[in-house]
Design goal:
The protein is an alpha+beta fold. The protein folds into two domains: 112 residues, Glutaredoxin (3-Layer(aba) Sandwich); 152 residues, Glutathione S-transferase Yfyf (Class Pi), Chain A, domain 2 (Up-down Bundle). The chain has twelve helices and six strands. A six-stranded mixed β-sheet has the order 4-3-2-1-5-6. Strand 1, helix 2 and strand 2 form a beta-alpha-beta unit. Helix 2 packs across helix 8, helix 5 runs parallel beside helix 8 and helix 7 packs across helix 10. The longest helix has 25 residues. The protein is globular.
Amino acid sequence: MSIPPTIVAFTRDTWKWEWIQLMKGLAPADKEGNYKRVPSQKNNAHIQHPETLVNRSKNELPFLIIGRSCPWAHRTWLVYILRGLQNNIDLKLATPDPQGGRWLIEPNFMGCKTLLELYKLCRTPPSHRATVPTIIDPKPKGKNNPELLGNESAQLIKMLNDWPVKSNAINLFPKGIQDEIKQCSELMQSSINDGVYRCGFARTQKAYEDASSELFHSLSLIEKKLSKQGPWICGDTLTLADIMLFPTLIRWESVYAPLFKCSAKPLWAFPKIWEWRKTFFSIPGVKNTCDANVWRRDYFGALFPLNPSNIIPNGPNIENIVNSLAPYTR
C-alpha cells in the first residue's frame, strides 16, 4: 500500500520543523544556517605556585579530566602522554550521558557524580559550562576548596607543555618557531577543527558547501606545508600544531566523513597528511588514546538530530584505518 503524497509532504515538513528545534539546542546557527560555536568562558588557564607541584603526594596531585570521544580533550591527553606527566598529574575519565546532557564521573570523585557537581565544588561561576578537558587542583595553596585551573583546550595544552617535571620532557612549543606554531594552530582551529563541526551542523545547503570548501582548502594548505618542510607541520620538530590537528584527522573515517558529511575527498587524497597521521599514530602511547569503536558509539549514539535512527555503524578498528594502504600505493 502506497503512502498518500499529502502524508509524505506533511511528514517532511513536520520533521524539518522538529529537526530545526533540536538543532537549536545542539548547535546554534546564524540566519544563514552557519553553525556558530558558543564562545567558551575562558578561565585563563594558569599554574599558580608551580614550585609546590613537583613534590606533591599522589593524593594531592592536580588531575586532568578527559572524555575519550572529545577531540578537544584528546589534545590534552596527547600532551599528557608525550611529556610523561603521569607522575605529576592524575588522569580522570568522564563518560557522556546523552539522556542527561552531562558528563558522569565514574567512580565518584571527591563526592561528585557529575562534572557539573565538581565544578560547583570548585565554586566555578555558573557561566562556565561543565566541559572536558578540565584541570583541577584539589589542594590549592591558601584555599579550602578545589580550584579549576582551566577548561579551554588551547590554553591547557600550553599549560601542560609548561608543567613542571623532575625529568627532561619534550618541549612542544619551542622558541624560534612559536609564531609559526600559532599561525598554523589558528588556521586549523577555525577551518579544520571547528570546520568539521560546521559541516556536520550546517542548517542549509549553502552553509554546508561553504564550510566544506573552507575545510578542504585548509587541508590542501597543510598538505603543501608538509610537502615543503615535513615530517611535522612546522618542520623537523613535533609541536603543538601537530597536537591540534591529530585528534580531528584520526576521527575522519570513523565519524567526520560519514556522520558530518566531510566527504568531498577521502583523506588519502592528501598523501603527505596520510603519512603524517600514520607517523603520529606510531609514537609510543598515542595508539592507546584512540578507539574508533568508542567514537562511533558516542557520536552516532548521542547526536540524535544527525542520526535519528540511533543505529551505530560497524567499522574497522583504528589501527586498520591508519595502517591501510592508500589506493595510489597499491
